[in-house]
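Quick one, probably user error.
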């Protein structure tokens, strides 16, 4: 048979074909993940002031923007102290902080795979008949030295895995911020609900005292024979019913106090919040809050980081098609006698390179790519859903505040009218011009309207805190801190 150059190169070409294909596919590897952004309206619908038609602002996450101590806008020292205690001791925050620390440790562990590995080793063995000459004389081998290994990350598998772990840690950091904001908001809302309940309890108890005065007057008139016993029974019924409502409010207050204890990380048995007047200020919301403040929401940021991590893991799965190349080395001493182990003549060393490229894996790598792609699709859908939920939360609170402001004005008029009607009814009843039923009806109407006014006011505080939470911790525009680009525009504008 005639031998030529092609005879020898043909087998090598066949053997190297998978490697060459992998090198070609390397150029098709996943590009560097890009941060997803969302297109936000220039303003929220509830606060729109005739924005330009069809104009949207491309908003990029800005979770690093400072939020500040937003609860201080309520100008309540007790609230400030409660939020500080919740920040320090709340268990949900501590759980989120522990998960963040775990994610950061995992990121460091993953990143360590990209660094050279160096180890110290030593060993001793005694054997017989295991060498090539099948010696029947036992021999001893003692070794000591350093081992070195380093994987060449030619196709980015290790770097993408490291990026994914880092992005997971950043996502956990966003979830920690989200948990902290949630706890702060719940603490503020629970405290404000408790203070509103204190005022409502005081109002109901004042009404009970008014019924007692009416009962004494009714009993005197009954003893004088001016009215029937039925009138006395009616006043007693009304007073007992109102006292029952006061006890119901006491029960609700105890539940809110216990909830505050849990939020601040304390036992309900040792926590006490004494009743006090409701002197908390209601912050004024500026007109025209820009929609770009949503870029500061930590849950939106966490969802974005999850998308980036999923993109990086797609790259890791694709890099599994490429060969792994590792450099190895070792240096030390080897001797059959412990006394001669560290002599210069006993030195030994070795270096090597390892290449690994799976050829048949039953579809394992393809399944890995498909699974990573599916996770990316899910992360993108979750991110979009989180953004839509953020807009919904803000619009809900803005609409509530708008309606509650109008309701507060109307309810104030109702309270004034009911109070005047009670005064007139009381005077006319004492002079015998109207029946007792008219007086009781006037008192019930005043109590109902006063309690409704307190509930509307409480709802305004709750919606204000809810809006702050929905906006990510305030309503200042994070883009204000950035330098405006040429032309005076503060953000990129894109068509709808």
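Nope, works fine. Designed sequence:
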């Amino acid at each position: 048979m005639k031998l030529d150059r092609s005879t020898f190169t043909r087998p090598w070409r066949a053997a190297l074909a998978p490697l060459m294909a992998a090198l070609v596919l390397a150029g098709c590897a996943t590009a560097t993940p890009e941060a997803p952004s969302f297109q936000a309206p220039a303003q929220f619908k509830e606060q729109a002031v005739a924005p330009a038609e069809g104009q949207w602002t491309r908003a990029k996450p800005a979770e690093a923007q400072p939020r500040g101590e937003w609860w201080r806008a309520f100008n309540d020292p007790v609230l400030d102290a409660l939020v500080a205690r919740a920040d320090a001791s709340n268990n949900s925050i501590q759980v989120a902080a522990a998960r963040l620390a775990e994610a950061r440790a995992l990121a460091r562990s993953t990143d360590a795979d990209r660094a050279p590995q160096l180890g110290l080793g030593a060993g001793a063995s005694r054997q017989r008949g295991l060498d090539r000459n099948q010696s029947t004389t036992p021999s001893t081998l003692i070794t000591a030295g350093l081992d070195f290994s380093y994987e060449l990350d030619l196709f980015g598998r290790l770097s993408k895995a490291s990026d994914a772990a880092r992005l997971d840690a950043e996502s956990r950091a966003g979830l920690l911020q989200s948990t902290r904001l949630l706890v702060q908001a719940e603490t503020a809302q629970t405290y404000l609900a408790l203070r509103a309940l204190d005022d409502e309890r005081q109002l109901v108890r004042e009404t009970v005292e008014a019924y007692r005065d009416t009962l004494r007057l009714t009993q005197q008139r009954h003893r004088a024979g001016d009215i029937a016993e039925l009138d006395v029974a009616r006043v007693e019924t009304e007073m007992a019913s109102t006292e029952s409502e006061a006890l119901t409010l006491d029960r609700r207050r105890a539940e809110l106090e216990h909830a505050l204890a849990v939020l601040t990380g304390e036992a309900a048995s040792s926590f006490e919040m004494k009743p006090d007047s409701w002197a908390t200020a209601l912050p004024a919301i500026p007109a025209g809050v820009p929609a770009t403040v949503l870029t500061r929401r930590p849950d939106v940021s966490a969802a974005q980081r999850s998308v980036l991590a999923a993109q990086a893991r797609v790259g890791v799965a694709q890099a599994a098609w490429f060969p792994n190349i590792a450099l190895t080395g070792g240096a030390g001493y080897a001797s059959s006698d412990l006394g001669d182990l560290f002599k210069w003549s006993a030195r030994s060393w070795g270096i090597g390179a390892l290449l690994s490229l799976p050829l048949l894996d039953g579809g394992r790598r393809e399944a890995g790519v498909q699974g990573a792609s599916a996770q990316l699709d899910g992360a993108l859908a979750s991110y979009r859903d989180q953004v839509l939920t953020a807009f919904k939360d803000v619009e809900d609170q803005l609409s509530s505040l708008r309606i509650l402001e109008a309701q507060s004005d109307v309810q104030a008029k109702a309270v004034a009218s009911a109070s005047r009607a009670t005064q007139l009814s009381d005077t006319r009843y004492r002079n015998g011009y109207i029946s007792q039923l008219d007086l009781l009806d006037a008192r019930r109407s005043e109590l109902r309207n006063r309690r409704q006014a307190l509930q509307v006011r409480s709802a305004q505080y709750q919606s204000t805190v809810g809006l702050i939470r929905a906006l990510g911790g305030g309503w200042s525009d994070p883009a204000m801190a950035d330098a405006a680009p040429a032309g005076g525009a503060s953000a990129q504008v894109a068509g709808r």
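The longest strand covers residues 139-152.
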